[in-house]
Specification:
single chain, 844 residues, alpha+beta, seven-stranded mixed sheet, six-stranded antiparallel sheet, 25 helices
Length: 844
């Protein structure tokens, strides 16, 4: 380009160039282009080099806005801001923007200077520009290369250090080095390789300096090194040292890789190999490791020499030499199996059993198993196997086979024997079934007999109680009439005879209940000494009449508050004491009580403890012979069962007593000397009771009842007359009928306050009549109080009558006190009041 200035072309009219050639020279050489702009950015002057750069004439340029004339559109706004920000008097600045030239868009760097105006002219801006397009491209390339270097440097998975070749100091370290050692880049630049080492031989400063020296001499170093991080942790690394140039200067490049896991894996592998060898060389089986083509042996355990009788060295030299020892008869089979495996993928399998002939001529039978050893990709790179000596097992199997054959012969013989025995068993089973059938029939017959017995006892009770009720009832009525002395004696004899007969009936019924296991003991608190006192008071009169003494002797420490059935205990004592009084003519009777073992204190009742007591009844009576003592507790048995015996009785008292004692968890015994007396002893177990029973309130005299309408249904005329007279004497109105149908008709015709219903009547019985009354359409008459009056006194009779719809229950012979209770309950129901205590009905 011609840069010689044309002297005929004027510069800017007021520039110093008019004063001499120096400015003109500077104007043309100050840069690739020099322009003079007014404050509005219009072009006032431009150098010749600038015109040449733009490819325009001066006339085309002067007076035009410089940004629109030559500046690239994207830089125009920025240039205007830079010019406006330039101070007016002597201010300078730098700028950079693209210029549209004859050579295309070029990048220019500008130096801006604000020139003061002269002679009243406004200030202007002098701009010198230099084309930096080529230099910018070079800088960009250098920056990109540096960025790529940094990216690779920091992206490396290994730690990389750049060391000074002379001092060994760290100049640079990548991000992996910072993470591995825990130091910041600034901390690393202040350190040397010795600071990252274990610090003791052979991993100290001298050793690392020697390796650095060798690397500087052009001998690359690759070695394992024990390093230490900022926290003091020691770890294994692999270090690669090489000499290199960086920025034109000699440097040592160190690449460090953390091999801690590899070292641990190598150690684990060594330990595993050691264990493997120890195991392989200890077991009796032969373990081998070979190539997948079956042509090489990598390992064979020492058991091979013991089993084959040949050295392992020979097998390593000739891997198929083991076949030489295979028995000739088995060799072809083994070779065929091996041939089938060659060239195929290895899968777990078993070779046929074969025999090995050892050098001493002995033969061993072996079994070989093989399996692949695969790498991480699943490809088998080895074949392993175990050869087991099965000679003894084979011999045992053969022996077992012979034994099994003998056993099969024995089993066949035994089977024949069992078949014979089975036939005999079938015959025995048939006979047993026949016997069981006979037993079942006998059981049914026994149950039928038991039912017949129960029915007989019920009927006997009914048939005896019904006339007995008449006897006792008439005796009570007769007692209310004027009688002289002999007549009163006769009446007393009648009542005692009837009472004795009633006691016999009650004994029979009690024994029937016990024998049928239908007698259950109650469990209520009671006072032991109170029970004994009641027995003493009840039988003391009888003893006094015979001139006998009756006393009670209770040990002081015997607990008094007990939990059990006081009535049954009283019944046992009454039976024993009554017998003692009955069979004693002179002397007396003593009731004694003591603890079987140590007596428990009262506080033991809190733990529900139980106490076993020993009762005794001693008398000075006639005594019992040894031959009779063993059988008097049997039912219907007496010591004197002759026609001339002095004492009566059914022989059930002691049998009932024995069974009641057993129900109370005890036993009964007897010691007796004929002519001197007897001692009956029995034991019973009771729980201790912590709280005494509430004393029964004295029953108040029943208030007089209002006259009531009573329907009396009974087929027995005597019984009707007795009850009717009792009711009429108390001021009640009575309608008497003889069967159940008449009772239903009477209730349907007129209202009644109470129905006294006999159970067993001809035609319609009492239960059927009660159900018919409950079904009457009139609600008031259907709800009338009905009381069963019956001689049925077996266990369960009372509950059966109440379930059938009866409100109350009276047992024959009827006692006036019980009749008054039933009347009071019916009166309370009529008035809607609660019956007074002692008159609450059958459950109260």
């Amino acid at each position: 380009m011609n840069t010689t200035r044309n002297p005929d072309v004027p510069l800017a009219p007021d520039l110093p160039a008019h004063d001499g050639p120096l400015f003109a020279t500077l104007w043309e050489t100050a840069g690739d282009i020099v322009v003079l702009l007014d404050r509005g950015a219009r072009l006032e002057a431009i150098s010749d080099r600038g015109l040449a750069l733009l490819g325009r004439t001066r006339a085309q340029c002067l007076g035009r806005g410089w940004p629109d004339l030559a500046v690239a559109p994207e830089d125009r706004a920025r240039l205007r801001r830079e010019l406006e920000a330039l101070p007016e008097n002597g201010g300078t600045g730098l700028a950079e923007h693209d210029l549209v030239t004859a050579r295309g868009t070029r990048r220019l760097a500008w130096a801006l200077a604000a020139l003061p105006g002269r002679d009243g002219r406004p200030p202007r801006v002098l701009a010198c520009g230099r084309d930096i397009t080529d230099m910018a491209a070079t800088v960009k390339t250098l920056r990109e290369n540096e960025a790529a270097y940094r990216c690779i440097f920091n992206a490396a998975s290994d730690a990389i250090f750049l060391n000074d070749a002379e001092t060994g100091a760290y100049l640079e370290a990548n991000e992996r080095a910072v993470a591995l050692y825990g130091y910041t880049p600034a901390e690393l630049r202040a350190m040397s390789p010795a600071g990252l080492s274990a610090g003791y031989p052979p991993y100290g400063a001298e050793e690392i300096r020697e390796k650095t020296r060798l690397a500087r001499q052009g001998q690359p170093q690759l070695f394992e090194w024990l390093s230490r991080d900022k926290a003091g942790r020691l770890f294994w690394t692999e270090v690669n040292l090489r000499q290199g140039l960086h920025s034109g200067r000699e440097r040592i490049i160190a690449v460090v890789r953390d091999i801690t896991e590899r070292k641990m894996a190598e150690r684990a592998l060594r330990e595993s190999e050691k264990k493997f060898r120890q195991l392989a060389e200890t077991i009796d089986e032969v373990f081998w490791l070979g190539s997948p083509d079956w042509k090489r042996i990598f390992y064979i355990s020492p058991a091979y020499e013991r089993l084959w009788g040949r050295s392992t060295k020979r097998l390593y030299e000739a891997p198929l030499s083991w076949l030489d020892a295979v028995h000739p008869v088995d060799r072809e089979q083994v070779l065929g199996a091996l041939t089938a495996l060659i060239g195929r993928p290895v899968t777990p399998g078993v070779l046929p059993e074969y025999r090995v002939v050892r050098p001493d001529g002995s033969v061993r039978r072996v079994q070989a198993r093989y399996f692949p050893v695969a790498d991480d990709t699943g490809v088998a790179y080895r074949v392993a196997g175990i050869i087991e000596d099965v000679t003894d097992r084979y011999a045992a199997q053969e022996q077992l086979k012979r034994v099994n054959e003998r056993l099969e012969d024995m089993v066949r013989e035994r089977t024949r024997t069992l078949n014979r025995m089975n036939q005999e068993l079938i015959r025995e089973v048939t006979e047993r079934r026949d016997a069981e059938a006979a037993m079942a029939m006998a059981k049914e017959a026994a149950e039928a007999a038991s039912q017949a017995k129960s029915a007989f006892l019920a009927n006997m009770s009914h048939e005896i109680r019904t006339p007995l009720n008449g006897i006792l009832g008439m005796a009570q009525i007769l007692a209310a009439t004027p009688l002289d002395g002999p007549q009163q004696g006769f009446l007393k004899d009648i009542e005692e005879s009837a009472g004795s007969l009633l006691a016999i009936i009650n004994d029979i019924l009690d024994f029937s209940k016990i024998e049928a296991d239908r007698l259950e003991l109650s469990r209520e608190p009671f006072g032991l000494r109170g029970v004994l006192a009641s027995v003493e008071a009840g039988l003391g009169v009888l003893a006094q009449e015979k001139g006998l003494g009756l006393s009670v002797d209770v040990a002081e420490d015997v607990p008094d508050l007990l939990l059990g059935d006081a009535d049954r205990l009283r019944q046992v004592l009454v039976n024993l004491v009554g017998n003692a009084v009955k069979f004693t003519e002179h002397g007396g009777v003593v009731i004694g009580v003591q603890c079987v073992e140590a007596c428990l204190p009262p506080e033991a009742a809190e733990d529900h403890a139980s106490q076993e007591l020993l009762f005794s009844v001693s008398d000075t009576g006639i005594g019992i012979g040894a031959e009779d003592a063993s059988r008097i507790f049997e039912p219907f048995t007496q010591a004197d069962d002759s026609y001339t015996r002095r004492f009566g009785g059914t022989g059930l008292g002691l049998a009932i007593t024995k069974r009641l004692v057993a129900l109370m968890g005890g036993s009964i015994g007897l010691e007796s000397v004929p002519g001197q007396g007897s001692v009956f002893t029995f034991t019973a177990r009771f729980e201790l009771e912590a709280y005494p029973p509430e004393p029964a309130a004295a029953a108040p005299s029943p208030p007089p009842l209002p006259p009531m309408d009573v329907l009396l249904a009974d087929d027995n005329r005597v019984h009707r007359d007795i009850i009717e007279k009792w009711l009429l004497r108390r001021g009640h109105r009575v309608v008497a009928v003889a069967d159940g149908q008449e009772a239903v008709d009477a209730v349907a015709r007129a209202p009644f306050d109470l129905v006294l219903m006999d159970i067993q009547m001809p035609g319609m019985g009492g239960l059927e009549a009660a159900r018919a009354i409950r079904a009457l359409p009139h609600p008031g008459r259907a709800a009338v109080s009905i009381a069963a009056v019956t001689a049925h006194a077996m266990a369960g009779d009372r509950e059966r009558f109440l379930t059938a719809g009866m409100d109350d229950y009276l047992s024959k012979p009827v006692v006036q006190r019980e009749l008054d209770r039933v009347l009071a309950g019916a009166a309370a129901k009529v008035s809607g009041a609660v019956p007074p205590p002692g008159q609450a009905g059958p459950d109260g």
